[in-house]
């Protein structure tokens, strides 16, 4: 069965949006071609979740205007908590679709680091963006949603770290969603040139209860030879979005990408995190925590694909499910022919807090090479009544005992987030959700 | 002084009756040893007093100073002054030993009257030194990856920090080498005195060389069948249990399976 999907914008509208933004010609063409493709291409088919009835395409308006922040004092308390106001030297805040605040240290500028919103980057660093934007990692024509994204991009971040530059302190981005009619087509592009190192941490935060819009997010991380990228994200998007989030790593020789992702959306969400270990000796760590609640339906596909020899990939996913939430965890370790001496390891654990919740962990190993190592572990279970008995026998209430067990269950990922304030925020979000 | 009174206690697990009318009274300032062959319900008694979810009390009463323990949730029993040092303590990942013990202490205090961090650290350091535990164990996850001996020491550490009225030690000596046993006994002897009563459940008389009990009880077939002083334990060590069976006319019929 094919479902007629009505796209919200025509090719003409997309072109005029691009012209109004003063985007370079290549970017306008990319958008226009993408909207054509979006009408023809099929939807993605996440394993074990049927999304034919999900609405990924309709929204009230493509962009909304929001006020910028002239100082961090103007932020709401909720947003302030995420940021070390005094200490954070490099910070970008996007408010709905508006580049609302940017602070970048002189040191970073002197090193040649580029850290700006994606639409400014397209204008001011056109060649550099063009080289990496939807070329090596995510392709425009993978399916309808990648093409739709490419056509409608209306926000995001570009981060470029030049050769041999080591950025010591984490860079921080906050995507603030405070307008129920906003749709987020954010594109994050992180390029770490050879021998560089950077830590990037972003937070998606909704301060409105309900969204009428779409979230179609693509984030690409390109780690060139011997570069190291740590990418942290905490996603807390509101109910009402239909969220498609595609995180893709492209890791060259001896390079390393660490993902630490706290996926706390209240929306229905299709999330894929795929890292390609293209270079010999490359390494990826993907750590994910998820809490599902209410009637939420989510699908998390996490894959590390080995092309380079001696490449190593580790996937760790911990999920907590409550109420009637339904979640699929697909974990894929794929070793291509020729990627000898590679090591693919994955672990998925799901903790069920209620009878009505569903959580499926599907570990998959696809191996096309003999001389490799691979392993997986998966489990779905309830809170161990003996653990609760033990904790309560010391005087802790049942609620507190459960809180400790859940906290401990999610700790292996939470403790990996590189910014203290973001880690604290994630802990708080988790506690709010599992209460 | 506080008193723990167990009367006519019947306990089943999965519809199989393990305890069949057990009576026991202990006061603070007393140490009671409960001995007996395997499978007579000793660990069931320990678990039932604390409120283990798998054990069902079908008859009888347990009271502390007249308060009905059986109506209390597990945490309320702890608040009322009970403590169970478990034979197989659970491992809790992601929660440090120190944080856990501090939460347990504060759970017994009123809001606003929490133990100060400095005082807590002082007491924890002191108790860990006393039990010859490596300070680094405070920051490790609760029991995770601990050896059998480390887990038992950690149970005694919690006992010393929480200071309950009544401690039930469920085979605290099993699997311990002699040095670890001495340390564990040292901890319990340190607690001994006004305001502290103890039920030490054991297979082996060996523990009682280091902790002298005031009373010794023998359990068979789900009941206390004989009580006496420390000399009873010594006779059991020398002669085994057969003389009691003969004396009381007990036949080995349905030895029950002891639950872990």
TrEMBL record, chain A:
Looking at the record, the residues that make up the SUF system FeS cluster assembly SufBD N-terminal domain are: 108-173
Top-level taxon of the source organism: Bacteria
Q: Where is the SUF system FeS cluster assembly SufBD core domain?
A: 177-409
Q: List the SUPFAM superfamilies hit by this protein, alphabetically.
A: Stabilizer of iron transporter SufD
GO biological process terms held by the UniProt record: iron-sulfur cluster assembly
Which PANTHER family did the record assign? FES CLUSTER ASSEMBLY PROTEIN SUF (PTHR30508), UPF0051 PROTEIN ABCI8, CHLOROPLASTIC-RELATED (PTHR30508:SF1)
Q: Which family does it belong to?
A: Belongs to the iron-sulfur cluster assembly SufBD family.
Protein name in the entry: Fe-S cluster assembly protein SufD
Automatic annotation (TrEMBL), chain B:
Q: Tell me, what's a Pfam family for it?
A: ABC_tran
PROSITE patterns from the UniProt entry: ABC_TRANSPORTER_1, ABC_TRANSPORTER_2
- Which UniProt keywords are present, listed alphabetically? ATP-binding, Nucleotide-binding
InterPro entries with a match to the protein in the record:
AAA+_ATPase, ABC_transporter-like_ATP-bd, ABC_transporter-like_CS, FeS-cluster_ATPase_SufC, P-loop_NTPase
Which residue intervals define the domain ABC transporter in the entry?
4-246
Return the NCBIfam families for the record. Answer: sufC
Q: What is this protein called?
A: Iron-regulated ABC transporter ATPase subunit SufC
Organism from which the protein derives? Ureibacillus chungkukjangi
């Amino acid at each position: 069965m094919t479902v007629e999907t009505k796209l919200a914008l025509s090719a003409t509208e997309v072109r005029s949006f691009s012209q109004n933004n003063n985007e370079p010609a290549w970017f306008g063409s990319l958008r226009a071609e993408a909207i054509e493709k979006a009408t023809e291409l099929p939807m993605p088919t996440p394993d074990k979740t049927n999304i034919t009835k999900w609405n990924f395409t309709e929204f009230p308006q493509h962009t909304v205007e929001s006020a910028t922040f002239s100082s961090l004092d103007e932020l709401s308390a909720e947003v302030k908590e995420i940021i070390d106001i005094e200490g954070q030297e490099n910070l970008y805040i996007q408010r709905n679709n508006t580049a609302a605040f940017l602070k970048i240290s002189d040191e970073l500028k002197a090193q040649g680091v580029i850290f700006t919103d994606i639409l400014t980057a397209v204008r001011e660093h056109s060649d550099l963006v063009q080289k990496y934007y939807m070329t090596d990692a995510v392709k425009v024509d993978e399916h309808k949603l990648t093409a739709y994204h490419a056509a409608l991009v209306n926000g995001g971040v570009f981060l470029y770290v030049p050769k041999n530059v080591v950025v010591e302190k984490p860079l921080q981005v906050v995507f603030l969603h405070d307008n129920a009619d906003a749709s987020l087509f954010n594109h994050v592009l992180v390029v770490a040139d050879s021998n560089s190192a950077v830590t990037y941490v972003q937070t998606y935060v909704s301060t409105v209860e309900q969204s009428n819009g779409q979230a179609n997010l693509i984030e690409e991380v390109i780690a060139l030879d011997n570069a190291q990228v740590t990418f942290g994200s905490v996603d807390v998007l509101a109910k009402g979005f239909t969220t498609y989030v595609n995180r893709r790593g492209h890791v060259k020789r001896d390079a390393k990408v660490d993902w630490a992702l706290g996926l706390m959306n209240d929306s229905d969400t299709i999330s894929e995190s795929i890292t390609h270990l293209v270079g010999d000796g490359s390494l990826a760590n993907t750590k994910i925590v998820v809490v599902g609640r209410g009637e939420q339906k989510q699908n998390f596909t996490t894959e590390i694909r080995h092309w380079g020899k001696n490449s190593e990939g580790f996937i760790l996913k911990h999920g907590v499910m409550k109420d009637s939430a339904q979640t699929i965890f697909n974990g894929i370790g794929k070793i291509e022919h020729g990627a000898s001496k590679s090591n693919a390891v994955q672990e998925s654990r799901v903790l069920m807090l209620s009878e009505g919740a569903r959580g499926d962990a599907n570990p998959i190993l696809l191996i096309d090479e003999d001389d490799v190592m691979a392993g997986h572990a998966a489990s779905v279970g309830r809170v161990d009544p003996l653990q609760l008995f033990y904790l309560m026998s010391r005087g802790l209430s049942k609620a507190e005992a459960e809180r400790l067990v859940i906290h401990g269950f999610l700790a292996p990922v939470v403790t990996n987030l590189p910014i203290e304030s973001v880690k604290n925020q994630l802990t708080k979000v988790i506690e709010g959700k599992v209460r | 002084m506080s008193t723990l009174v167990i009367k006519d206690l019947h306990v089943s697990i999965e519809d199989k009756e393990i305890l069949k009318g057990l009576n026991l009274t202990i006061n603070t300032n007393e140490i009671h040893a409960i001995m007996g062959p395997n499978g007579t319900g000793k660990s069931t008694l320990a678990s039932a007093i604390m409120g283990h979810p798998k054990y069902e009390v079908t008859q009888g009463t347990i009271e502390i100073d007249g308060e009905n323990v059986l109506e209390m949730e597990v945490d309320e029993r702890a608040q009322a002054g009970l403590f169970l040092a478990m034979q197989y303590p659970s491992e809790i990942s992601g929660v440090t030993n120190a944080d856990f013990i501090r939460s347990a202490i504060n759970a017994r205090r009123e809001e606003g009257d929490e133990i100060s961090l400095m005082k807590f650290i002082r007491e924890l350091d002191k108790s860990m030194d006393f039990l010859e535990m490596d300070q680094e164990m405070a920051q490790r996850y609760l029991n995770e990856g601990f050896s059998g001996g480390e887990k038992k020491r950690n149970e005694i550490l919690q006992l010393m920090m929480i200071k309950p009225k009544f401690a039930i030690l469920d085979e605290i000596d099993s699997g311990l080498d002699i040095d670890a046993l001495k340390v564990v006994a040292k901890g319990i002897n340190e607690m001994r005195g006004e305001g502290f009563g103890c039920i030490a459940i054991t297979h082996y008389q060996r523990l009682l060389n280091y902790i002298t009990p005031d009373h010794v009880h023998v359990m068979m077939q789900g009941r206390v069948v004989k009580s006496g002083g420390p000399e009873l334990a010594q006779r059991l060590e020398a002669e085994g249990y057969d003389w009691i069976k003969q004396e009381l006319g007990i036949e080995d019929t349905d030895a029950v399976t002891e639950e872990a």
